[in-house]
């Protein structure tokens, strides 16, 4: 018999207080003391949701991940050196586990219902300047899709979700943080009076769940005829065994497989790809303008997001207004727009992750950004993810003079990921 | 319309000409980067060797010229770029700087601290100015170069890059392209469109330069952007402040803010007269931000000539300081001074 943990349920309102990493992993795998030899049909493996969180690339003076969580208002209790219980009050049962993956990333694991845990994750990230989600944009999804096509048998089931919401075509409520909504906004609208005239705008949300060979055959043709199919927001990577792992654009990963160990391996793989992409982008983009005795020594390059078509003037204005009239906006940016020319706005801005500086040029045909050294490359992923979902699903992105896809397109090297014990 | 005769506009345009970016997609064509040049430095001193200074002493020569931009191509070719609103004659006081640049560019091994056992890299002095003045400028450069050659001094190639607004965009014409390396000269022998209409200003990475002659409206435009950079720098510093024990004194140094807002060039500019007014404006802008009444926890603060000191007793008060800055607007500062038209924002 393995572990002494409580009987796991698929959806619990708190996590159990277990003494060791091994027992937590057993819990996530669905092992339970005494019950395994009993009626297996009653055994239910908890559905583990992971939330990938990014901190900062370098810096000896940075707080540890557990200090960052405490700054965000969480109560953190160690299980071991790299695994911590996260609770809402001292002595309370945890609602998640935080595992430090490496110096830059950690994962929150939970079995709570998504509707209960997502607000807590949002509060954590918003409550701490050091934290940001892992934002998986289309080029990263495309690389993962290549990985799925290369690795998985054609009969395996895959799931791809697409979303495009032309939110700025009409005046209306803004998504607070750009993440998945708690519920379908259209359903919410239906709850209002039937006499209310609802503003209409373009919106597409679609999920394909089919065998790999079917999706592979059809996806390019779908994209040719309908642009929202470029905006991937979710991909199910088939598991090594049964089921798969659902990666979402905002860093949530749901374990739909029969193995938590496989789930962790998939998280590590994706984080390695993500980390290398982010660091490569930073190395290209970071605008180092170092003033000294020799003058201002400079290097760096901009990131350019080019829209397939110029935005209509009203959409452009509504988009810019939505960011810079509201501090808690989807893009997590702040600043004071300055006129740069016809339909062009310049912003000496702040990224509210790390309060780092960012320079932005908004125009109807593009968004141009300069990242001073130290501004987290995650900002680029967040920008691209939000632009593809809310502005233009077919946006083309360049990191310096390289297409974003070229910066992403390298397979992670196999082997140990920095930090954290291997289990 | 874009101010092709404004040196700050020109400088920031040149920075965009040197950006590593896809030429077919980015708004301002990085044609110098396409030719293989990368930005090396801004306002870098190029001190002349003592022997050259001695020989040139009979002429008006700036012995430590600092070109606006130094661009390099694989460390064996350099463009020494200077931005000017208009041309000048050989007898002008500004010609001393031109002489200094031509001498420095002739042998950059000393000014750039390169090994002396290698041959001197190629260096060309290029003046950027409105197209209408470009050929006149080149003639001046040729004349001052002759003066130096008459003294037996080694001199560099020279050219001028003329900026012109056409019907369909912004154009650059190189005068003296035959003095550039063959491949570069060939490509610059034709007029280049570097930006399609409608024209917009480049993002001003360097919004303000001291002692640059500008029209009043351009000066105001640049100061407005500079205040935005100051705001950005101050908020970045306050946002990243880590105070863990209370009560705590938090000092916002004006110099630290200005160093950040000027990418470090503030240290080089501190000795000049006009920085005094910039420091004053910075202090006034920041003080106004904290003086404005808001529905926030009150906090103690005091400003002097060099810093603003906050005496904070809780994390909430630090958040209040940050919130004051977040909501402060450089546009309000300009409006308060009554000298600037307000940007129409939010868009109507």
Structure description:
The complex is a heterodimer of chains A (423) and B (348). In chain A, 28% of the residues lie in helices and 27% in strands. Chain A has helices spanning 21-29, 65-71, 114-126, 138-151, 185-191, 212-225, 260-285, 313-324, 378-390, 404-408; strands at residues 49-54, 75-80, 83-87, 96-100, 105-110, 132-133, 157-165, 203-211, 232-238, 243-248, 252-257, 288-292, 295-299, 303-306, 333-334, 338-341, 344-351, 356-363, 366-370, 396-399, 402-403. In chain A, strand 18 (356-363) and strand 19 form a beta hairpin. Chain A is globular. Chain A starts with 20 loop residues before the first helix and ends in a 15-residue tail after the last helix. The model of chain A is unreliable at 1-11, 34-42 and 415-423 (pLDDT under 50). Chain B has a 7-stranded mixed sheet with strand order 1-2-3-4-5-6-7. In chain B, strands 8-10-9 form a 3-stranded antiparallel sheet. Chain B has 348 residues and is an alpha+beta fold. Residues 338-348 of chain B have low confidence and may be disordered. The two termini of chain B are 22 Å apart. Chains A and B meet through strand 12, strand 13, helix 8, strand 16 and strand 17 of A and strand 1, helix 7 and helix 9 of B.
In short:
The complex is a heterodimer of chains A (423) and B (348). Chain A has helices spanning 21-29, 65-71, 114-126, 138-151, 185-191, 212-225, 260-285, 313-324, 378-390, 404-408; strands at 49-54, 75-80, 83-87, 96-100, 105-110, 132-133, 157-165, 203-211, 232-238, 243-248, 252-257, 288-292, 295-299, 303-306, 333-334, 338-341, 344-351, 356-363, 366-370, 396-399, 402-403.
